[in-house]
Amino acid sequence: MNPPWPKGKKLVHLDLKGAPPRVEYLHRLIELFSRLGVDGLLVEYEDMFPYEGELQLLQATAQPAYSREQVLSIQESAKARGMEVIPLVQTFGHMEFVLKHRPLWHLREVPHCVGTINPHKEEGVKLVMEMLRQVVELHPNLRTVHIGADEVYTLGEGEDSKLWLASTGRSVEHLFLSHVTKIAKAIKEAWPDMNIIMWDDMMRGMSQDTLKASGLVGLVQPMLWDYTPNLDVDQTVSLLEKYHGAGMSDLWAASSFKGSTSVHTCVTCTQRHVDNHLQWLKVAASLPAAINMRGIAITGWQRYDHLSVLCELLPVALPSLASCLQTLKHGEFSTEALRNVTEVLGVSSVEMEAMERTSTGESLFPGRRLAELIVQMNSLLNSEDLRFFESNMFVRGWFSPYHRQKKMVNPLNSMHIHNQASLYLDTLQKTTEAVRKEMVNLYPDSTAEEWIEEHVSPVAAPLQRIIDAIPACVKEIIP
Predict the structure, then answer these.
(1) 5 φ, ψ to 5°?
(2) Which residue, 319, 322, 324, 313, is CA-closest to 266?
(3) Measured between alpha carbons, how far is 117 from 114 in angstroms, rounded to an integer?
(4) Which position among 31, 84, 151, 450 bears the catalytic label?
(5) Quick count: other Cβ atoms within 10 Å of Cβ 329?
(6) DSSP strand pairing (221-225 vs 250-258)
(7) What secondary structure does DSSP assign to 28-51, as a single string?
(8) Which of 42, 76, 97, 340 is an S-S bond match for 306, by CB 3.0 to 4.6 Å?
(9) Phi, psi (5° rounding) for residue 94?
(10) Closest alpha carbon to 307 in 114, 446, 128
């Protein structure tokens, strides 16, 4: 057993770049987070922020962005429960939602990388600062902002960068640090008391001396992220010691409660995320007393990036979040921790797939009905009978592509295949409608449409093709 997570904030990350919850559902989630012991929210708005003026083109089109009033109401709901709201605004990498727009293509580092901004163009810096200005303005009394800066792919490959790097003594590391330092200094100039957090991954390979000389020391608080269940404790401690040794005295950790298993995961595995937190507890227990951990952000990614598919939706991940928070509180996922989770959420298990279905529990577990339906749908979609229908003995033996092409089929077996495919498709369609009906209560219609297209359509389409093809083939051989 490890000691509980040391003093510091426990933030929950809301990734709104996919499946942005309806505001009413967000209020219910914030209430639950409060009951779970959350201290703050790390909110990644992306295109759901109501940018104005020349930045209005950044707003989402699949569904309306949140209104100014809604953004304020989210903050009020959190503040009323003692939670700080920290907005995350990407300022270097992962700017896909910005640089995908044709009028801004020229600000990319290289044409084929939609995520990374060219650090040499003053227009790009002005764009980033205007994004920050609008976000800060709509967060009254804001004390902390997160500037992203993770996974800055293809940096150094643009023509402007190549020219810059041609000067003696310059490297891609220096290029990264110069841009981030420029942004951090501009933030401090505009808002002198603002705390600035940034992701750490681009600094992991840098020497302590490089970091010391960068000008970043005293400006930013690195947030070291690792979402794996087998996180390397010694390596992570070593990294934190390096940052501290470079003079970065305020440090953060970032774990994960969902959205880090695979890019298309549908149902969260609680144990995987609990294991990640157990490793982080080992890191915290191994740190020298001089290192000040400001807290931990428990991330819940909704997409790997703006242009990837949806990861698990929030409702199926709430048992995981509750379990991770209890693990941090107790230093282990003990019997007491398990009991606390099951009582707070009103559930029988912390693994969604093992949970007993119930007609109650929405008040304790907001979105429970949708979570149960997603688990039911996931089980159906992964059943061998459906997923591999085209490979079953009857289809491969009596209704192969060759049979269909020649319209030479065994009518008896073809009708058996038709009946079976129709039965499966009917079950799939009924479950899909139940999922859709529940999902649109919590999410925009566009989220339901995307989720169904992504998960259900690839399984339903082959069934439909077979059902449509059989009558024409059978007609050729029955008088």
Answers:
(1) -60, 130
(2) 313
(3) 8
(4) 151
(5) 17
(6) parallel
(7) HHHHHHHHTT--EEEEE-GGGS--
(8) 97
(9) 50, 45
(10) 114
Integer Cα distance of 175 and 170 in angstroms:
7
Task: Report pTM.
Answer: 0.95
What's the token pair of residue 264?
Answer: 């298309």
Closest C-alpha among 303, 328, 244 to residue 13: 303
Which structure tokens are listed for 2? Answer: 């490890």
* Residue labelled with tokens 């040391």: 6
| Tens-place pLDDT, residues 51-101 | 999 999 999 999 999 999 999 999 999 999 999 999 999 999 999 999 999
pLDDT tens per residue across span 319-372: 999 999 999 999 999 999 999 999 999 998 888 877 776 555 577 899 999 999
User: What are the φ/ψ torsions at residue 140 (nearest 5 degrees)?
Assistant: -55, 140
- In whole angstroms, give the CA distance from residue 45 to residue 152: 19
Identify whether the C-beta of residue 229 lies closer than 8 Å to the C-beta of residue 275: yes
Q: Which residues contact 407 (CB under 8 A, 6 or more apart)?
A: 472, 473, 476, 477
Q: Which two tokens stand for residue 293?
A: 């951990």
Confirm whether 151 is a catalytic residue.
yes
Length of the chain: 479
Instruction: Tell me whether strands 292-300 and 9-15 are parallel, antiparallel or unpaired.
Output: parallel
Is residue 452 scored above 80 in pLDDT? Answer: yes
Q: How far is CA 130 from CA 65, 104, 125, 183, 389, in A?
A: 18, 14, 9, 11, 53
- The alpha carbon dihedral of 59, 60, 61, 63 has a sign of negative
Helix/strand/coil for 119: coil
Alpha carbon distance 338, 325 (integer Å): 11
Q: Which of 148, 145, 201 is nearest to 173 (CA)?
A: 201
Contact 324, 255 (CB under 8 A): yes
- How far apart, in Å, are the Cα atoms of 433 and each of 66, 265, 379, 421, 465? 27, 21, 16, 18, 20
Distance of alpha carbon 466 from its chain centroid, rounded? 36
